[in-house]
């Protein structure tokens, strides 16, 4: 769970750390860039179920998340939302593999994802309304003119806080499960200090709780990817259609 730095890559004056979480992000990117296209383009019957699952997920994202929130023009943003969902999902699932690490349990990673969503939200709003129209709709219509100097910075802060909440929500939910698993495993050693027999007696219960938590983690991996994409779509739709 700790993002240990293994080595450094030097690019001129830059010294870039290579860590487990960075490696997991690279692996997730490789899966999306290489494995997914091979699955989609392959005509092998054995891979047909995987192609069908990917297609079902993409259609669900389009019909149930993107289009209802962004409107007809949201189809142009489907690539981003699909990539966002699968990228988060793959990183979450890799963390459940032995010797893997959950990159989304790193605050810097979730902050990067939230930053891309923040850029998309504002880009979509400006593209739809124009720069001055977008700025003009930051403060809701009907607010008295004398309140604008107060409401404008509050609304700007709200835009930042919404994306910051995306970052914290994903990070907290992914790291919480790992902490719970660590606590259950530590019970074996804690009670083992009272005697070997006590430790052996507690071990089956601790292992059972760990397995149950891992199953919950599998559900959370899908759920958090879905929640992140849904909230990003809602915020983007609100920026595109302020009324």
Description of the molecule:
- This protein is mainly alpha-helical and 243 residues long.
- It has one domain (5-240).
- It is 74% helix and 5% strand.
- It is built from 7 helices and 2 strands, in the order ββααααααα.
- It has a two-stranded antiparallel ribbon with strand order 1-2.
- Strand 1 and strand 2 form a beta hairpin.
- Helix 2 (48-70) crosses helix 7, helix 3 (78-94) runs antiparallel to helix 7 and helix 4 (107-129) packs antiparallel against helix 6 (148-192).
- It is globular, with a radius of gyration of 22 Å.
- The model has no long low-confidence stretch (mean pLDDT 84).
Low-confidence segments: none
Mean pLDDT: 84
Strand content: 5-15%
Please give the alpha-carbon distance between the first and last residues: 44 Å
What's this model, at a glance?
The chain has one domain.
List the helices and strands and how they pair.
Blueprint: E1 5-11, E2 14-19, H1 20-41, H2 48-70, H3 78-94, H4 107-129, H5 131-136, H6 148-192, H7 196-240
Antiparallel strand pairs: 1-2
Task: Give me some keywords for this one.
mainly alpha, 7 helices, two-stranded antiparallel sheet, about 240 residues
